[in-house]
Amino acid sequence: MASSEFKKAATVIQRTVDRFGYRSAYLLFSVFISRAIAILLLLQMTIPTWARTKKEPASPTDPGYVLALATANRFLLAWQTGDLANGMVLLSDGIRHSQNADKLEEFFSAESDRGFEIGAGRGSRLRYSFPVVLVTAKANRLSRRPSFIVLVLSGKNDWVVDKLP
Asked: Domain for residue 56, yes or no?
């Protein structure tokens, strides 16, 4: 395929030389080549800007962010291991009273291998939301369920889960 394209290019060059002469053909192709190089350089300079269009989450300055993230991690670890007791301790009173006890037990029941992924959180000093992906494995099939978990400050440095993933 490359040889056929080379033959086509050679034919175009030969026709240009026959029509305009060597000097004119040289000038014509040097202008063409310089424009092609300029376009390639322009594309090379713009590619990094395309790659930077996705903004990184701002690095948090609130020390509560770390505590909220740690609480989210402990809660999801309780979910992963099926530890209902430790998971319930990390729930807000609103969630504990609004959710059906059977649904909470079902949420924590470890019927298969599980894992989770936590993304960078967003929020304020009193409330943070973290994107999560709950991963379960059943019969050699992986299931990924994207969601988010919301944590609120309930006391001095005491964070609780206010929305289940």
From this structure: no
